[in-house]
Amino acid sequence: MTENKPLVFSDEMPERYIMEMNTDKHEIALSTKDLEVYYGEKRALKNADLKFERFKITSLIGASGSGKSTFLRSLNRMNDTVGTVNGQIIYRGLDVNSSKIDVYEMRKHIGMVFQRPNPFAKSIVENITFALKQHGIRDKNVLAERVETSLRQAALWDEVKDNLDKSALSLSGGQQQRLVIARAIALQPDILLLDEPSSALDPISSAKIEDTLLELKQKYTIIIVTHNMQQAARVSDYTAFFHMGEVIEYDLTRKIFTRPKVQRTIDYVNGNFG
Ligand SMILES: Nc1ncnc2c1ncn2[C@@H]1O[C@H](COP(=O)(O)OP(=O)(O)OP(=O)(O)O)[C@@H](O)[C@H]1O
After folding, report:
1. How far apart are the CA of 59 and the centre of ligand 1, in A?
2. How many whole angstroms from 67 Cα to the centroid of ligand 1?
3. Where is the ABC transporter domain (predicted)?
């Protein structure tokens, strides 16, 4: 990034950032450098350097309190009001963590889905169109197209297409979570951050969310916090293991689960949490 480059995002195609990741060339959608987070005096995240490959799913795993959510929430500045975030978050050559970034605009590019489904107390269709209208999209055809496309991508369209005016709160938990995913992708972000998106759901709904994520990675770069190791192994290409605020190991998921290099990771994936 040059000093004079304005810190605003454009809708132009992103420049291509090719970096070395292991031995192959991979396109990096987002990276962090020396990212650390303090809550008051407490350092909850230490010097996290991670690179996220475009159109891949990366899981963040680790015991409760290890800093996964803190890291994830920092990526689109959700920690601004609760903690102090130092270091860089590089996206399209810009530092998302800079005070000059338009956070509202940035979140159009880096969207987030939380653990508990949190649809608005509005109709299904309004849940999708609300943010679009806020961002100035008024054309009825464009709105209708975005509603259908995002609901299809979130694998919910067939279940709700005849009841789009029904209250979102009348949907099941699993459907609500897919609606929230549809709401996030209606803005056509590049990157989707998900904080334990299926932990509050039954196994069937959870499996549907996993299928949805595998579909979505054709178009989105996905970073997901999960406590469910099987889920991490099933859906993700890369896995980062966090322990006490540090990234201990980051590699291809199959390596983390079959041949981890660090003893702490070996213990964690083998279920020895002591
Ligand atoms: N808003 C906050 N204020 C103060 N401390 C916080 C806050 N959020 C998190 N922490 C602390 O920061 C540390 C990391 O928490 P974080 O939620 O990031 O961990 P986690 O790995 O995501 O845990 P979990 O899996 O339980 O969600 C913990 O010690 C936690 O108590």
Report:
1. 17
2. 6
3. 30-269
